[in-house]
Design brief:
Layout lengths: L2 H11 L19 E2 L7 E2 L4 H18 L2 H11 L3 H15 L7 E4 L2 E5 L10 E3 L2 H4 L9 H6 L9 E4 L8 E4 L7 E7 L2 E4 L1 H4 L8 E7 L8 E6 L5 E5 L5 E3 L10 E7 L8 E6 L13 E6 L2 E7 L2 E2 L9 E3 L5 E3 L2 E2 L1 E5 L5 E4 L6 E2 L11 E10 L8 E7 L5 E7 L2 E4 L8 E2 L5 E4 L8 E4 L7 H6 L19 E2 L3 E5 L5 E3 L1 H4 L7 E7 L8 E6 L8 H13 L4 H7 L8 E2 L1 E5 L5 E3 L9 E2 L1 E7 L8 E6 L5 E5 L5 E7 L11 E5 L6 E4 L2 E2 L4 E2 L4 E4 L7 E6 L4 E8 L3 E6 L4 E2 L3 H4 L23 E3 L15 H4 L14 E4 L8 E4 L8 E5 L5 E3 L13 E10 L2 E8 L10 E7 L4 E7 L4 E8 L8 E8 L11 E6 L2 E4 L1 H7 ...
Parallel strand pairs: 6-48, 24-28, 29-32, 44-52, 87-94
Antiparallel strand pairs: 1-2, 3-4, 4-52, 5-43, 6-7, 7-8, 8-9, 10-11, 11-12, 12-13, 14-15, 14-47, 15-22, 16-17, 17-18, 19-20, 21-25, 22-23, 25-26, 26-27, 27-28, 30-31, 31-33, 33-34, 35-36, 36-38, 37-40, 38-39, 41-42, 42-43, 44-49, 45-46, 45-50, 50-51, 51-53, 54-86, 55-56, 56-57, 57-58, 59-60, ...
Helix pairs in contact: 1-2, 2-4, 3-4
Length: about 1350
């Protein structure tokens, strides 16, 4: 050993004296020096924590030269005083973690260090056992405790953070039964129990959640511990890793669960939100006795077990539910304001700090079953918002920070549904659009057998028709995609994350460091109290005799233990996730509760720690070797960890990666304050930006991969960034119609629905009484909507169909941009049957009628008219068109036989009471104004299927209209017109080369789905009519079963004269076709099943043949293998399918319009979306709000968000129709809603197009069936075809508005029959007429 080496060591030792370790020693200002510790910018050289770190830095050259054993031996002999012995101990400690010592280098606004990234790794984790780590911790819970208090089964969590300031993240574990444990990280994956030294055992409390946070702003981490019934305990760190418990216990006697910390009031101190559950519950009082009384005409609870509900601990605890059942409420959460780092003051929920969604101060506090809470700045205004996950019937709370410590509930339309048993949540930008999305966990199983045997809590009762602004709860995970205006589309089923077992905690984390955040979920349950067979067994036991409380508690042992695997989902970059838990080493089976993220080995990726129940804690080393960049924050006191700051990284594999620094906010857990981002390649230069909670902004340019950066707020600048510019006490929250946040330009459309003030009427009908196993109600399919110049004054009027009990609505255009409702015969007659399509028809010169489909689905009587004719001139109706066995659906007009007048197609939607038997459609020939059944085509349309949409279109360009039908449980049926005779045409398909999970048949007919509507347009500009068809989409409960076709088996299986049906899918675990629905649902419709299955478990293993037995022979089978809304490009001899953008798959689509919404000369598509009238076990489909798809002229489309299009329709949209009602050359839009307001949108921003009126022959004066195009010299614009009936039960205006890419030179028309003409256009013409001879007249 050289003399210089010894001198270096001794110089380091002389810095330490006994006085250095006294607490609360006052430091002189000139004692402050720059320290390279990752959590300190300035520190006192005579503090223990700083000396521990600085000593290790100065000692590093020495340690490189000398082995640990030699050092110990040498200095234990030489050290005669305590200073030297202590220094020798520090040398040993430093040597343990020398391999990952970070060499910090200063830089502008930060400091950085190279990361020791491992080589040869792979995405995923290695589980490190206690024998390796030294973490010998188990959250043990004796059976007797959880049998009598099921709340304890919620488990415990942990906290991660560097408590002693040595640069290594330590771990604190909570325990329900016994002392908690704090483990000091020694480096190299070695940990040492330091609980007794730290004084944080909490041995006598039932600990649940914990968090490390700098409460005082003194640059060290304090500790908060929650408990069930024992309050919330605060421990203040002295800077040495030793803690002092605060004298005051918060949240006393409450069932404290998770916590979150954030600065809600701009004072820099971290405020504290505690989510409370209960310390004990009614479910653990099995023989509770209740008495009731009547108050104000309502039944209310009076006593429980003889105790008045007015007792202090019983108040606001119980309510009487809608069915007369007792519902227990949870406890009141607490938001504490951190006054000065040591004192915490609760904020009242009813004192004006909390407002409802309408902005009114709460009059009653929310008593919820709180499980998880988090602070997140969801709307990017710099203020921390609050989301609280609540269990059972109490709904989640999403509080938007208004500034000044005030919060307002998110508007109801911004979040359409929520999970029922909301366990935990996490936020992440899953699609890298710069906006945070979030996932909420529930308890739905991924395993078919478990789903069939676990109790499913009833979804909300059938919703009131037209109810839109509610927020029903459903028993599945919910994933909310931020639309960019801080409203959310729920897409969990599309994404494949709707089910994750009995889940507790979730973490978004970029495991494979590809730039896209993946997902980890912990799950499992010690007692599966939702097992239907066990529940029925216990019910039988209690019915047989009166059981004591003790006997009931012991009987709970029958419930099985759900030791399910934890799950890992890889982000596929397309809004979908793939489960890869086994491949990534994150599939331990047991009961896992709280999880936390931390970089435990200082290699710059995030490791995972899990607190398991009755098993050793899980410690997972992240094995990735991909390039990364880690970010820590050094905030200004008192927010020294930069909590609430948003970190953005650009230049990596994704164009923008962003995360927020949080504290707590996990289920019972708290992460270390470090965030990790993918760097892409080792040579990338990245940019780091930090928007601090204070409004300051930091930028680190040319950041290097495989480095950790500690960004310093002290060197940040305050700039008028978008964040700081809107930070003020009156910070706005998104309202029901948020203003655009991503555009500087005006939206295309403005909502002018007030001009008509129409609300559709539809009386309730119980479809499930007649056919209990229907997948959806068929009584709420309308209304259709149409633009038609009913009085011939040159202005389009608006016509809307009605449901039973209402009236058809006709709004007459006044020519000045307004409307007047026609309240006169024949439109004042009450409607006795639901109306379907509404079409305008020029029956004869000067005679304009309305045709309305009349559905007899509800009454089932084959009598009356299939179509009602309304004659305005005579103020009468004609019901001479006879009904058919099938209830009427879509209507469409076209000149099928080429005689110059229009024939009528009546699509058969369903046979009442016999769904899904194929329905029959009818073609009625126009014989001099009289419609007669076309006997020649009757046979080909017999049993065409469950027809939901229809359009006549000339697909083969021969001048006559072919027929396209959209069928449920069937294909798009196409009938080629050959001289008036319709022949089924099974089109050839040519698939694009991109891979698909769905089948790719060579012809159209095998492409069966639940097609709702169909329209045609020229989307690639080749002059041929392409097909666009709306389907059910991918965001349904069926999405996870679509590796093979979906099935429906139907017939009269129990001989009662009604059609039974069983939905089914291929179940890989069983390798069988298995039923979709649970046993109880099937047995209510088919009681004979009770004889076949003795238990839900037996049923869960059965396939469809075992269920139906001999009845299988008589069963008919339908299939669906394609649910995407799809475009079919016409290639002449075949069609090329292209799936519409993913936004078009968020919800079932009905209304379907084709037109140039922005006037750029390319055809666009509008979809009307959503369906709420589902069967009781299915969540409603509400992921859409109407969608414009902007075409590129080559068959490609881009979704326009509502804040760009201006179209936001949140209800059950049905019909949709486009037309330029105000004559300004822009395409306006009307959308009907079932049981709700009709929406009218005026186009205000499009480039005006050319208005064209076709003047056809006397029997077809509007030129229905004609095709027209604008010519630009040698170049041709897209073709437009005139239809009378298309999309879903609707009709667009006969006045065509063609967008102009430039000034057109000619207009080309092909008339029905094949005659064509081309005529020059006058420069500057805004509206023209063109007749069959090609004569053009300029109207304006």
């Amino acid at each position: 050993m050289s003399r210089r080496t010894v001198v270096i060591f001794l110089q380091c030792c002389t810095l330490l004296t006994a006085s250095d370790f006294k607490e609360n020693k006052k430091e002189e200002p000139n004692d402050l020096h720059r320290c390279s510790h990752p959590t300190r910018a300035l520190c006192a050289p005579r503090s223990f924590t700083c000396h521990h770190h600085c000593f290790r830095e100065r000692l590093e050259p020495f340690l490189i030269l000398v082995k640990v054993a030699a050092l110990s031996k040498l200095f234990s002999r030489a050290a005669a005083n305590s200073k030297l012995r202590f220094a020798a101990g520090l040398a040993l400690i430093a040597s343990w973690s020398m391999a990952a010592t970070l060499d910090w280098q200063p830089g502008p606004g930060c400091r950085s260090a190279f990361l020791p990234v491992p080589t040869g790794g792979k995405p995923g984790f290695s589980s490190l056992p206690p024998s390796v780590t030294g973490i010998a911790f188990t959250n043990s819970l004796p059976e007797q405790r959880h049998l009598t208090n099921q709340i304890l089964l919620n488990g415990s969590g942990l906290a991660a953070g560097d408590v002693d300031g040595d640069g290594w993240c330590d771990l604190y574990f909570c325990r329900l039964n016994g002392p908690n444990r704090l483990y000091r990280n020694l480096g190299d994956w070695k940990f040492q129990d330091m609980t007794e030294f730290a004084g944080v055992a909490c041995a006598d409390i039932t600990s649940t959640g914990a968090a490390f946070a700098d409460l005082e702003g003194d640059n060290d981490l304090d500790l908060i511990v929650n408990s069930v019934g024992n309050g919330t305990h605060l421990f203040f760190n002295d800077g040495h890793g030793r803690f002092r418990e605060a004298a005051t216990i918060l949240n006393e006697k409450k069932g404290g669960m998770s916590m979150a910390l954030g600065d809600i009031d701009d004072d820099g101190f971290l405020d504290l939100y505690l989510a409370n559950y209960r310390a004990s519950a009614l479910m653990d009082m099995p023989n509770a006795r209740a008495t009731f009384r009547t108050k104000d005409g309502k039944l209310v609870l009076d006593t429980i077990n003889g105790r008045p509900v007015t007792d202090p601990d019983m108040m606001d605890r119980f309510v009487v539910g809608p069915q007369g059942n007792i519902e227990e409420l949870g406890e009141l959460d607490v938001l504490y304001r951190n006054v000065d780092g040591k004192n915490f003051v609760p904020i009242s929920f009813t004192g004006g700090a909390f407002l409802d969604a309408d902005g009114t101060a709460l009059a009653r506090p929310p008593f919820d079953w709180g499980l998880t809470v988090t602070f997140r700045d969801i709307n990017h205004d710099g203020l921390p918002d609050i989301y609280v996950c609540n269990d059972f019937q109490t709904e989640d709370r999403f509080w938007i920070n208004q500034g000044g410590g005030r919060f307002r509930l998110l508007p109801r339309l911004a979040q359409r549904k929520s999970s029922l048993f909301s366990m935990a949540l996490d936020f992440a930008d899953i699609n890298r659009d710069g906006f945070d999305d979030f996932l909420v966990l529930d308890m739905l199983s991924r395993d078919h057998r478990q789903r069939m045997t676990q109790k499913q809590d009833s979804n909300p009762p059938l919703l009131r028709i037209g109810q839109i602004d509610d927020r029903p709860q459903y028993g599945l995970n919910t994933l909310f995609l931020n639309r960019g205006d801080f409203t959310f589309a729920e897409i969990a089923q599309l994404s494949g994350v709707q089910a994750s077992e009995w889940s507790w905690s979730c973490l978004f984390l970029d495991v494979d460091l590809d730039g896209w955040e993946d997902l980890l979920i912990s799950n499992g349950m010690e007692r599966a109290a939702r097992d239907l067979d066990v529940a029925e067994r216990l019910k039988t036991m209690r019915a047989a005799k009166r059981m004591s409380d003790a006997e009931i508690f012991r009987a709970r042992r029958i419930f099985p233990r759900l030791a399910t695997a934890n799950l890992a989902f890889r982000n596929r970059h397309d809004l979908t996730f793939e489960e890869v838990g086994e491949a990534w080493g994150f599939d331990w089976k047991g009961i896992s509760n709280g999880m936390a993220l931390a970089d435990l080995d200082n290699d710059g990726d995030l490791d995972v720690v899990v607190n398991n129940l009755n098993a050793a804690a899980g410690v997972y080393r992240n094995d990735s070797s991909a390039p990364r960049i880690a970010v820590r924050l050094q905030g200004l006191p008192p927010n020294t960890r930069g909590i609430g700051a948003r970190i953005k990284v650009t230049g990596g594999p994704a164009w923008l990666q962003s995360q927020e620094m949080i504290c707590g906010g996990r289920y019972l857990a708290c992460d270390d304050t470090v965030r990790v981002f993918a760097a892409g390649t080792p040579t990338n230069l990245l940019k780091i930006e930090v928007d601090w909670r204070s409004g300051h902004h930091s930028v680190i340019r040319e950041a290097l991969p495989n480095h950790v950066y500690e960004v310093e707020e002290a060197e940040a600048v305050e700039i008028p960034s978008p964040q700081s510019a809107i930070r003020n006490p009156q910070s706005q929250i998104p309202d029901s119609n948020p203003q655009p946040s991503t555009l500087n330009s005006q939206p295309l459309y403005e909502d002018v629905s007030h001009l008509i003030g129409h609300v559709h009427s539809d009386e309730p009908f119980d479809d499930f009484m007649r056919q209990p196993l229907l997948p959806n109600k068929l009584s709420q399919l309308g209304p259709g909507i149409s633009w038609f110049d009913l009085n011939g004054d040159g202005w389009d009027d608006l016509i809307i169909g009605s449901g039973k009990g209402g009236q058809m609505a006709v709004y007459q255009n006044d020519g000045t941009g307004g409307f007047k409702k026609l309240d006169e015969a024949p439109f004042t007659q009450p409607i006795t049957r639901d109306q379907t399509s509404v079409l305008g028809w020029c029956k004869a010169p000067g005679q304009r009628l309305l045709l309305a489909g009349s559905a007899h689905y509800e009454d089932g009587l084959v009598m009356g008219a299939a179509v009602r004719q309304y004659d305005v001139s005579s103020k009468s109706t004609d019901e001479s068109l006879p009904a058919i066995d099938s209830s009427a659906g879509p209507l469409a007009l076209g000149d099928v036989d080429g005689d110059g007048d229009l024939d009528l197609l009546v699509g058969g939607r369903v046979i009442p009471g016999k769904y899904p038997f194929p329905a029959s459609s009818r073609l009625f020939r126009n014989d001099g104004g009289t419609l007669r059944v076309d006997s020649e085509n009757k046979k080909v349309l017999e049993q065409a299927g469950l027809v939901s949409g229809a359009v006549f279109s000339d697909l083969d360009g021969d001048g006559d209209p072919d027929l396209i039908l959209a069928c449920e449980w069937g294909p798009l049926r196409i009938y080629r017109n050959e001289g008036g005779k319709l022949t089924e045409w099974n089109l050839l398909l040519r698939w694009p080369s991109s891979p698909s999970l769905n089948p790719q048949p060579s012809t159209l007919n095998p492409l069966t789905g639940w097609w709702n509507s169909v329209a045609t347009g020229d989307f690639d500009g080749d002059g041929q009519m392409d097909i666009v068809a709306a389907n059910w989409g991918r965001n349904t409960q069926y999405e996870s079963h679509r590796s093979r076709p979906l099935h429906v088996y139907y017939g009269d299986f129990d001989g009662d004269g009604t059609v039974d049906l069983v939905e089914a899918h291929f179940e890989p675990a069983l390798e069988k076709i298995a039923p979709q629905r649970q046993f109880d649902a099937l047995v209510r419709a088919m009681p004979f099943l009770r004889e076949r299955f003795s238990s839900h478990r037996a049923y869960s293993m059965a396939d469809i043949e075992e269920i139906l037995g001999s009845r299988m022979k008589s069963a008919r089978v339908g299939q669906a293998n394609w649910l995407e809304s799809t475009l079919f490009l016409n290639r002449g001899d075949r069609f090329e399918p292209r799936v519409l953008p993913v936004e078009a798959q968020f919800a079932p689509a009905f209304g379907l319009c084709v037109g140039d919404c922005d006037g750029d000369g390319q055809e666009d598509i509008f979809l009307a979306q959503n369906f709420f009238a589902v069967q009781p076990e299915t969540p409603r489909y509400d992921g859409g709000r109407g969608l414009w798809l902007k075409g590129d002229g080559q068959g490609g489309f881009m979704a326009l968000p509502g804040q760009q299009s201006g179209v936001k329709v949140y209800g059950e949209q049905r019909g949709a129709a486009v037309g330029d009602y105000d004559g300004d050359g822009r395409l306006d839009l009307a959308v009907s809603q079932n049981g709700a307001a009709t929406k009218l949108y005026r186009n205000v921003s499009a480039r005006p197009g050319l208005r064209i009126r076709l003047v056809g022959p006397p029997a077809n004066p509007l030129g229905v069936g004609a095709t027209l195009r604008l010519l630009y010299g040698e170049r041709r614009g897209p073709a437009r075809e005139a239809h009378a009936g298309s999309g879903y039960w609707s009709q667009d205006s006969a006045v065509q508005v063609l967008g102009k890419a430039e000034q057109p030179t000619h207009v080309w028309v092909r008339w029905p029959g094949g005659k064509t003409s081309s005529a020059p256009l006058f420069v500057g013409a805004k509206e023209i007429e063109i007749d069959t001879q090609g004569k053009v007249t300029v109207r304006k």
